[in-house]
């Protein structure tokens, strides 16, 4: 029996799950918050036991990793007796540039590549590397596996990933479209192939990952051929706080009118835009929908723009693949928002999609929401990035 620790380090956070790879059961999960700032806290959730909160200063990720291992082996709140029971660690890593198109066991070369991609993922890659090094120090000899968010997008053809800017910028700096949420798109597309009983060799699948961050991917035979995020996770769909696609001239225009720097405007496009920006209400889709239902016009405009963008991208990807066999919805909104799915699908009747409205009321489990007569299968497939990372890790060690 193999126990795999899955680690997802953000700039000031660390999320973890300990997964039994045989049963795929989560033994414990938790979150360290406010690493490196005041009020650091670990919330540990052992399955079948009460939550355990440790309020303790965490000056860096190394201390956070130590506290996580202490919690996992704690005699009252733990789920294992010795850290030696952890056979491998899988790390979510944001960016591998164009180097890796698959997960890989970490060695010095892998760490160098993660470091070389700091520019491409300035918030995440440094934290990811610190997490890897902290686990190496705490668990010497235990294999560490890096699972990259950009890996799935690496199979995109050149026509899909090139920006139409001077080619030298692609050559010199690697400026191209990479795509993100790759672990989720890869997991959900594979689950969709199994669940909808599609031909794994050549089926055409569109996955709509609709959460706070949102992106769409198109894949043929499980290989990504296009995806909506670009050089950074800002491109594509309208998200909780991110604008998605805009005319780049908007940046210059706001800079001039508001006397702001490019960095400041990019921060606005990342953190103050999306449904938050349009509605002025919230970045959380539940709040925006509640406001819309209470008659808030801007909330209505935000939701409509969000849905419209999803419909447009699906149309574009059907065109890109010259067809589609299945469309899958996943992540917070995709799994739970029955009305958003209804609205998106009502814009796709031209594809011969017929919705099973009863089935579409279900939430949070693998569900076929199209009728047997529907020309395209539509399903809800809950994403599980931690399980996907654990599976990749087990496959490599
Ligand atoms: P991320 O991982 O990118 O932070 P999630 O995939 O957890 O995001 O999705 C979070 C979003 O899902 C939130 O905006 C939340 O409002 C939305 N969401 C969750 N449950 C529901 C629901 N029942 N109805 C509508 N939206 C929901």
Automatic annotation (TrEMBL):
It catalyses: acetate + ATP = acetyl phosphate + ADP. One of its GO terms (molecular function) is magnesium ion binding. One of its GO terms (cellular component) is cytoplasm. GO terms for biological process: acetate metabolic process; acetyl-CoA biosynthetic process. Transmembrane segments: none annotated. This is Acetate kinase. ATP binds at residues 15, 209-213, 284-286, 332-336. Its cofactor is Mg(2+); Mn(2+). Substrate binds at residue 92. The keyword Lipid metabolism does not apply. The active site is at 149 (proton donor/acceptor). It comes from Anthropogastromicrobium aceti. Mg(2+). Can also accept Mn(2+). Its EC number is 2.7.2.1. Homodimer. The record marks 181, 242 as: Transition state stabilizer. Its main location: cytoplasm. Catalyzes the formation of acetyl phosphate from acetate and ATP. Can also catalyze the reverse reaction. The gene is ackA. Mg(2+) binds at residues 8, 385. It is found in: Cytoplasm. Pathway: Metabolic intermediate biosynthesis; acetyl-CoA biosynthesis; acetyl-CoA from acetate: step 1/2. It is an enzyme of class 2 (transferase). Keywords: ATP-binding, Cytoplasm, Kinase, Magnesium, Metal-binding, Nucleotide-binding, Transferase. Belongs to the acetokinase family.
